[in-house]
Design goal:
It is built from ten helices and twelve strands. It has 366 residues and is an alpha/beta fold. It folds into three domains: 44 residues, 434 Repressor (Amino-terminal Domain) (Orthogonal Bundle), CATH 1.10.260; 96 residues, Rossmann fold; 134 residues, Response regulator (Rossmann fold). The strands form two sheets. Strands 2-1-3-4-5-11 form a six-stranded parallel sheet, with helices on both faces.
Amino acid sequence: MSAARSGVPAVPTLREVAALAGVSIKTVSRVVNGTGDVAASTASRVEEAIATLGYRPNPFARSLRTGRDDAIGLVVESIGDPFFAEMTEAVAAAASEAGLFLIHAGAGDSAEEELAVVRGLLHRSVRGLVLVPCLLPYGEAGLSVGIGGVPAVFVDRPAAGVRADTVLIDNVRGGYEATAHLLAQGHRRIAFIGTAPERFTLRERLVGYRRALEDAGVAFDPDLVVPHHRTNEARLLEAVLAGEDPATAMLAANAVASIAVVRALHRIGRSEIAFVSFDDFPTADALTPPVTVARQDPGLMGRSATELLLRRIAGEDFPPAEILLPVTLVPRGSGEIAPTRPAGLSACVATAPSSRRRRRGAPPSA
């Protein structure tokens, strides 16, 4: 059955563009690929024919001719994570606008899997890479990526030992502002719930949390820092909500931990606990109360990274760039709950000194 009879529109070919423009197929190819000298008037006729027919180059066919894919690669931790899904959409859209397609994959929780995925993309001869480093020590892996190798931009986390462009979130300030927001509601016992303490993002957010406590004159209590993982989810909050001086508020360090906290609080019926999530997640604004979040913009991260990568692919030479994107605090209700304390518990709390020196580089205290 032909394409026309099946109801599927025919795909314009290079030959049809050449016929409409009155030039050779080779001339059309030169215009499409930006190679060779073509007179301005001739190039204009070809471009008009391309627009009229709606012709789009076939990147797969071109890769067979050139030995290099007209593609960029994207490696994230998990393609099912809503944060990385939004980032992937942004990278794909920016790549498409530049005439490239996207090959993306998840690296999971294994350095070996991450290495295999990156090597696989390099063997495909992609034009460049957007990488969210997970567990792979890139500086020791012997991969020719970054400055002097295949163009690469690292996103969300830097890659130690590799000279490359990076796009990061201001994790320290985000952790600081989320904690300061809870302190401003009167909380002094604030639990920090995180995953994978070896991860760069969690370490940075914990730094911001501790700085905010210090600036408010509240002593850091390591017993209020709770690692979340699948094996402890059923008893995740047990320790910090028990005892004579329990937590009255919580900051979850990412969306995965936040969802676990929401489930745990719902299961034990503790709606009086104030809660801020670092990162938004689906249905966060539909819960009761809606969840206050320190929101990142994964779409902006993806677009910013792709724009940097396209500059490298185009041959621009500049020192490794670092883009630091902000975190926006979005009050919705859960983070604005005032502390309540069990009967008989001392209401004395530490207060911030009226005059203190700001830590160098720390955000202003709330």
